[in-house]
From TrEMBL:
It is an enzyme of class 3 (hydrolase). Residues 29-103 form the Phosphoribosyl-AMP cyclohydrolase domain. GO terms for biological process: L-histidine biosynthetic process. Pathway: Amino-acid biosynthesis; L-histidine biosynthesis; L-histidine from 5-phospho-alpha-D-ribose 1-diphosphate: step 3/9. Transmembrane segments: none annotated. The keyword Cytoplasm applies. It catalyses: 1-(5-phospho-beta-D-ribosyl)-5'-AMP + H2O = 1-(5-phospho-beta-D-ribosyl)-5-[(5-phospho-beta-D-ribosylamino)methylideneamino]imidazole-4-carboxamide. Keywords: Amino-acid biosynthesis, Cytoplasm, Histidine biosynthesis, Hydrolase. Pfam families: PRA-CH. This is Histidine biosynthesis bifunctional protein HisIE.
């Protein structure tokens, strides 16, 4: 059985994927993959996700240039979550211009931003 055949995609043919900085361990983002995007990620050693809203493959960094180079790929004990350990090119993973998509921390029942914008999204996406 191939590595892809062992993955437990959900009823929509998707699997959650977490991108983590290979050097620091910081969680950068969460996205979805389908079988094709996971196969391309393995083949190209670059993160490829599936956009549920656009219903198409999404090559991370195709617009921003902030690609994710794969260092290691893991699955959990049930083979239903993917963990990508990546080198984040350009240091920005989030479309908001921050290093990580996880920049809001709950503090006194309110979400507080705890990370600076590294680059204005208008300068990234036009």
């Amino acid at each position: 059985m191939s590595a892809l055949e062992q993955i437990q995609f959900d009823s929509d043919g998707l699997i959650p994927a977490i991108a983590q900085d290979f050097e620091t361990g910081e969680v950068l983002m969460f996205a979805w993959m389908n079988e094709e995007s996971l196969a391309l990620t393995i083949e190209k050693q670059q993160a490829v996700y599936y956009s549920r809203s656009r219903k198409k493959l999404w090559f991370k960094g195709e617009e921003s240039g902030h690609t994710q180079l794969i260092k290691e790929i893991y699955t959990d004990c049930d083979n239903d979550v993917i963990l990508l350990k990546v080198e984040q090119v350009g240091g920005i993973a989030c479309h908001t211009g921050r290093k990580s998509c996880f920049f809001q921390k709950l503090d006194n029942n309110d979400w507080q931003s705890v990370a600076d914008v590294l680059k204005d999204p208008k300068d990234i996406y036009g």
